[in-house]
Amino acid sequence: MITNKYNKEIFITKLFLTGSVIFSGLFYFQLIRTVVSGFNTISRLELAVVVMYILISVFIIYGNLIYHLTRLGLYLRLRTHIIPSESDLEKFFCQVSPPLVTFLVPAYKEEVRVIEKTLWSAALQNYPKKRIVLLIDNPPNPIGKIDTDLLSDTRQMTADLNQTFRFIRQEINAGFTEFENNAAKQEFDSGYETEKLNDIYTRVTAWFSANMVDYEERSHVDTFYIKNIYGKWLGKLTQEAGKLSGSGSDMNGQIDFMRSKYQIISGILNVDISCFERKMYKNLSHEPNKAMNINSYLGLMGKAVRIFSLGKDKYIEVTKDPNIKTIIPDSKYVITLDADSMLLQDYVIKLVNEMEKPENSKIAVIQTPYSAFPGAKSAVELVAGATTDIQYNVHQGFTYYNSTYWVGANAMLRRAALEDIRMLEIQGDKVSVKYVQDRTVIEDTESSIDLVEKGWKLLNYPERLAYSSTPPDFGSLIIQRERWANGGLIIFPKLLRYVLRKPFELKRWVEFFVRGNYLTSIAGINIGTLLVLIYPFKDDVFTLWLPLASIPYYYLYTRDLKLMGYELKSIFRVYALNMILIPINIAGVLKSVKQGITGSKIPFKRTPKIGNRVVAEAKFILFQYGLLIYTFWAAAWDIYNSHLSHVLYASINGLILLYGIKTFIGFKNSWSDIRSQLANVDTGV
After folding, report:
1. In sequence order, which residues have a C-beta less than 8 Å from that of residue 116 and are 6 or more positions away?
2. pTM for the structure as a whole
């Protein structure tokens, strides 16, 4: 039945892809014919305008085709993907020596409650060998009570959480040790051992139940957390406890069965949780970005370290002194996990299981691109979350064309691959080890190209196993989307060099076609859309074929939203959100251009809050209203000049922009944010 569903989606995608290609071809045929027929009569300015329109349409159609192709790739992959059974995962779980997995959770001034949920989701992974390191990036000597209390509470929370797991684990391990001793001495009492194991499962189940009941539910994220972190384990352990009586008839069968159950419950709670603060050490990089926070710890893994002080400054250095006992453990796999993300319980075991397959030995990064937490109440979070969920599909399709990008929030990294792209950076008296590039604020994207240049591959696992927070208001969305838009153009030349090293390899050009859109589409589509909106193109370039070429894209996008549980009207709201994000995306692109010219890195930016809402920058709000006024003025001008096609386009988009301002920014919030920033300017703040 599922295969038939996938086959249906594959057929629909191919059908609409064909239609989009045909309509696009007719559009360009008519446009080029118009240019050729009037070449000797139109002015150079008019010719330049037509060429500009052609370039704009190229980016629009390019994006449409990529969406069709990645959707096709998604369903072709899903049709052949086999979800591991519980018995298969249990066999893998109970193998003699599963590889150690280390979670690195970078956090900068995050709320303790947010981090706590992330750490619990990592700690309760269905995997026996795991350790978690919270990479606290707050200033180690904060000024002010708020920052001081936040740092203290974050450190204490980590220590308390580690103690909580150690306490519950001790009782299980004691029972497991007694069980193994009795089995080795042939003193196995089936009734006693079953009762003891059942008692352990009952106590652990009660522990989960107590945590679930005691957790205060304040938001839809908390609801998801309670249901999927505590609730699913509670259900699974209750189910496992019901199987304890069916342990087999012969003694060896009973011993093997009970051993596997001990291994499972012991492994679930077998975790070491600690924290690390790079800014405490003078000789580590203090660059204000997530990449160097992660790099600082990666550079110490597997090494003996010495910590010492010189005056008021503290240092940490790698040493070969055999008397040094402080060794930072290494692991075969490292998981980077944002501090506002959550993982479902089988994330690690499924991804390690995939990475350990012999045919996947050259996979450097595996992940499940994150999804939005369901149940959002604010319009911004709900609609921005819809675009995130759509991107999950797109990135799954990238893998089909061997064009996967590592996309933040969560990822499992092979340490051997990271060592392959390791480099040293010297800045004054500091020598920084760099695995993940920090040249741009989309460090994972550039590192993807570094890895493929070294012959490594990346893979998106086709199941939704990871979730991450979506900005709940326009101010915080600005910060996120401006960051996402910054860096693609800087990385694009590196992608081009990678392809040109083997210019006659067709697979690389296919990869370039897919990857290139990811790096350039934000610039091309947003700038192009703005130009079409504000420039009164004549009716002879506004042909019917371009809208027809876009209809298949919008149909499939709407269909995908519906398949993910969103309402049909969501496509309209997504379009409105994208309209008001145009200036933010262009601002991010311009920062890339500036960085490309000057070579200076983009500094980290934090925006103050008003109550529970992040202040939206006044320049972006004023741009929205300025564009709104201009759009309706342009529509009136188009009517006067009989540009009937453009007046329709401008009027519709003007109304959509008005809806977007009202829904996602709010008229009252607009004035409040502008007024607060004007007040700060007046007072010199």
Report:
1. 157, 161
2. 0.93
